[in-house]
Amino acid sequence: MSRPVIIVVTVLLVLLGIQTIRLHRLQSAASTPSTPTLSERELRALSVRDARNSVAASNKNQKTSDDSDATTKDEIAKLDDPLSLQVAMEAVPSSGKDSALPETAHGAAQKGPADSAGNSRKTKPKSDDKDAERAAARKHSEQQLAKARELIQQGNYEAALELLQQGLADDPSNDHMYRSLASLYRTLGMTDEEIQLYQDWMGALPNDAAPHYLAAQAYQRLGLNADAARELAQFQEMTPGNLAAYSMTASLYRRLGMTAEEGAMLQQWTGDAPGSLEAHRALADYWRRSGDHNAALAEYRTAIELAPGNADLRLNLAAEYQRLRQFPEAQAELVAAMNLRPADMGIRMQLAESYRRGGDATAALQTFQGIIADSPESREALRAARAIQRLEQQLANQSAPRAAG
Length: 405
Fold this sequence. Notes:
Number of helices: 19
Mean pLDDT: 76
CATH topology of the domain at 138-202: Serine Threonine Protein Phosphatase 5, Tetratricopeptide repeat
Order of helices and strands: HHHHHHHHHHHHHHHHHHH
Radius of gyration: 41 Å
Largest sheet: none
Distance between the termini: 174 Å
CATH superfamily of the domain at 138-202: Tetratricopeptide repeat domain
């Protein structure tokens, strides 16, 4: 047999032996149950799950006394809050569900010992973990807010700015944090950042009306009245029946020069709150500025019925009567106001002038003289003395033609 043939036969025998060994190993493996092998990623996922369950178990045993130390929303003072009246509505934070931890490939494909081990590790619902995380984040952000307010009082605006920004990153549902950061942006003249913050606030707390009102104020300051009106309309839509919102909305409509919308809002306010002194006073002032003095009279009278001891309302009503040249009615209201504030020489000056304008020179002189007698060193006494001289001169001029005749 030649040498090449021997080599070929030898190679074939070696290959046959290798295949025989492989076949034997496969038969042995078939008779033994296989154990799933987890990838590195899957092992990390299980480790994370174990760690979360461990934290949850420890949180369950923690005392609840920490909750009493948390600062509530209502206890946090507003920092240069542009809202003259607090919007009476709850901001609803957006809440999302936890993202599920990745399942192992083997676990998704079959039920077996690995699944049983995984189930035994589930000691607490993940929703409880999320609630605990939110509570901790809120408490931390409130502490950051308090510290930021201290920094602002100290004039350390840069540090306060950084702290407020970090606080929002930690807890984007804290409306007080948004409000304080917006106020700081406004103080520092960072208008673009302020407006962008309102947009972020709207996105994070879509049920909170406050950012729409504050954005409207910012746009109004910039002269962007169309944008301001759009945000104000959104604020109005989100606060139906909110008595605090009526005054705020009407006031901003006035600054925007939207007098019709202002009047409609004030009339809606008095309709929804007929017993509100402020509503009737605001509507009366609106009618006065609009030149509808009869409507103003009606509203001032209603306001006085609600607060008969309010001297300012009686002065306002007297002024409307005088504009309509109804002097006896005006004088009656001035006398009532004077009785409520007898030491106020300004009211007595108005009464004397009303007598003079109404043609009752004798009553005017007596009232002027009474001011000088009761408060000789006052500014009103000097004015009264000059008024007496003018009035006496007028009376002399009027009597001269009659004497000559």
